[in-house]
Design brief:
With 171 residues, this protein is α+β, with helices and mostly antiparallel strands. It has one domain: 2-Layer Sandwich (50s Ribosomal Protein L5, Chain: A), CATH 3.30.1440. The chain has helices at 23-35, 69-84, 136-139, 155-166; strands at 7-17, 42-45, 60-67, 100-104, 124-132. The longest helix is centred in the middle third of the chain and has 16 residues, at 69-84. The radius of gyration is 18 Å and the shape is globular.
């Protein structure tokens, strides 16, 4: 396969939905910062008011981090090893453009993370964007071009890439 046709991980987005502001959200941010090699989490805010859950519009209810490059590779390798102990990736976790997502139920499953009763247990969602080189031509502002269909990542290519690169079984 030529270099232009080889898929790669463009970015990894890690999201923790806490559901409330305050100490639990600060704890989640500290855990996420430790897991992502010191990246600063960005808070996510409620879009709607949900009185049944005690959530107001604009209230911080979660945090997320976008990782690119070497940090993304390191975190994804660690997260997939943690995930593959109990689970396998399924075809339905891959979308039509080759991106995939999975969830980790407990942050204590990661190496180096121990359970602390003062903090509790937090889960996270991990979304991975897989692209081929040349996709920037469709997103850039100056001299924007149409996106060649040969450069689209398909679901099958992404599943093959994950299996070969990370050794994860896809059913």
């Amino acid at each position: 396969m030529t270099d232009m046709k080889t898929p790669y991980v463009a970015k990894v987005v890690v999201h923790m939905g806490v559901g409330e502001a305050g100490e639990r959200l600060v704890n989640a941010e500290n855990i996420m910062s430790a897991l992502t090699e010191g990246s600063k989490p960005l808070r996510s805010y409620a879009k709607n008011t949900l009185p049944a859950f005690g959530i107001r519009r604009g209230q911080p209810i979660g945090c997320k981090v976008t990782l690119r490059g070497e940090k993304a590779q390191n975190f994804l390798t660690m997260a997939l090893k943690t995930y593959s102990i109990e689970h396998v990736l399924h075809q339905r976790q891959f979308d039509a453009t080759g991106n995939f997502a999975f969830g980790i139920e407990e942050h204590t499953d990661f190496p180096g993370q121990a359970y602390d009763p003062k903090i509790g247990i937090y889960g996270m969602d991990i979304m991975v964007v897989v692209e081929k080189k040349g996709t920037r031509t469709a997103r850039r502002k100056i001299q924007q071009k149409k996106f060649n269909t040969k450069l689209h990542v398909t679901r099958e290519e992404s599943m093959k890439f994950v299996t070969e690169t990370y050794g994860i079984e896809v059913e």
